[in-house]
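Q: Here's a chain of 75 amino acids. Please give me its 3D structure as tokens.
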Amino acid sequence: MPMSPNRGPTAGGTLVTITGAYLAGTREVLFGSRPATHITQVSPTQVTAVSPAGNGVAGVTLITAAGVSNAAPFY
């Protein structure tokens, strides 16, 4: 699941674009256990979200109408 950018500051606040199949109906984006804010469904294959504050590498998980994605690394 490609993400751009794939890293951000520990303070959070980075607008992240996530691209992949079956993203329609994305209800939640998690960076580790922390929820993203301002989730926007751009298209059925693209979502944007603002990253929360946090240290280190966190897996990014999407909860969609199709189910829960595998975690993708975000640095």
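Q: Can you summarize the key feature?
A: Residues 3-74 form a domain with the Immunoglobulin-like fold (CATH 2.60.40.10).
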